[in-house]
Amino acid sequence: MDLAVTQEQAELRRTVRDFLDRTSPETEVRRLMETAEGHDPDTWRRLAGELGVAGLTVPEEHGGAGYGFVELGIVLEEAGRSLLCAPLLSTVVLAASTLLALDDEQARADYLPGIAAGTTLATLALTEAAGRWDDPAAVTTTAARGGHGWTVTGAKAHVLDGQLAALLLVAARTDAGISVFAVEGDAPGVRREPRATLDQTRRQADLTFTAAPARLLGHEGGAWPALARVLDLAAVAVAAEQAGGAARVLGMAVDHAKTRVQFGRPIGSFQAVKHKLANIHLDVESARSAACYALWTAADSPPDLPLAASLAKACCGDAYVTAATENIQVHGGIGFTWEHPAHLYLKRAHSSRQLFGNAADHRQRLARHVLAEPAE
């Protein structure tokens, strides 16, 4: 296992950070929180076109760059650092990964070029009212084949960017098992309702399908193994975001401790504050290590992915919430105000910890993996 950062990866991080510093400052994040779209289409097109972010993991024959998940993880970490409001997780991680995981070359040829170019916004509609993300039995949405092709009927909840995605990849049940269907966002029989969430920087929607026309992707009834891999990749992606956000709030706390003066000296000189910051630093570095290992596993060691994904998601989720909470404590009264950005990171920390399973879910999953391993 080689976790050394290459010169190309370091340059990618610098380029993405410089771009996001210009296009996603706090003022822009707050502006986008109030818009119906939740993101700036022009910024997304530039991310896709100028930086090639949307096609990083898309094969070159489909208009992408053909890189691995490590490079995408660098982008995700920087996106978490800047609270980027963009369909990065929904389109690039969920939708593109689903298309790549399914055995359907024609679907890849049809959909991936638009995703890579940034012209097609897409998402995966999997979770339903029960909220269980890793249980195939929780998929109750059904698909039926008639004289005019497939139709999908049912409801999905907590769909990332579901209110504006042009392409919906819907997990539905047929007599053969779980399948994935492509549904156009503006197709007849599709109703989309934005969902109010704690984190206004990331949009979710509830979708209802009433005999909506659909296209079967891959083999009927054989989609769950692909979806299981996509969910692991999603957990790794969120962990990378969380590591970036945790590092950012640590930096905010340290900077404030250096400049905020009480009793004639910077508060960072007090032992209690030093210990608090040191503990946050330890949590953040542990989280980054876990995320780094999970990204490498996603790219180079797929059999170990479920274990690494759960480890990273549990570690990074807790570290981000702790760091964001302690950042507010270090800032004192100003940290609790709407005008300060600390609460934006705290809300992102809490909401992202629930995405694709919280820390408790993933620790239970880790325990099941360990207990299932044969004794040596």
UniProtKB/TrEMBL annotation:
Gene3D superfamilies: Acyl-CoA dehydrogenase/oxidase, N-terminal domain, Butyryl-CoA Dehydrogenase, subunit A, domain 2, Butyryl-CoA Dehydrogenase, subunit A, domain 3
All copies of domain Acyl-CoA dehydrogenase/oxidase N-terminal, residue ranges: 6-118
Keyword line: FAD, Flavoprotein, Oxidoreductase
UniProt cross-references to InterPro entries, sorted A to Z: Acyl-CoA_Oxase/DH_mid-dom, Acyl-CoA_Oxase/DH_mid-dom_sf, AcylCo_DH-like_C, AcylCo_DH/oxidase_C, AcylCoA_DH/ox_N, AcylCoA_DH/ox_N_sf, AcylCoA_DH/oxidase_NM_dom_sf
Cofactor(s) this protein cannot do without: FAD
Cross-referenced Pfam families: Acyl-CoA_dh_1, Acyl-CoA_dh_M, Acyl-CoA_dh_N
Any one GO MF annotation of this record: flavin adenine dinucleotide binding
Domain Acyl-CoA oxidase/dehydrogenase middle: 124-196
Domain called Acyl-CoA dehydrogenase/oxidase C-terminal: residue spans: 224-371
Entry similarity comment: Belongs to the acyl-CoA dehydrogenase family.
Protein name: Acyl-CoA dehydrogenase
Source taxonomy: Bacteria, Bacillati, Actinomycetota, Actinomycetes, Frankiales
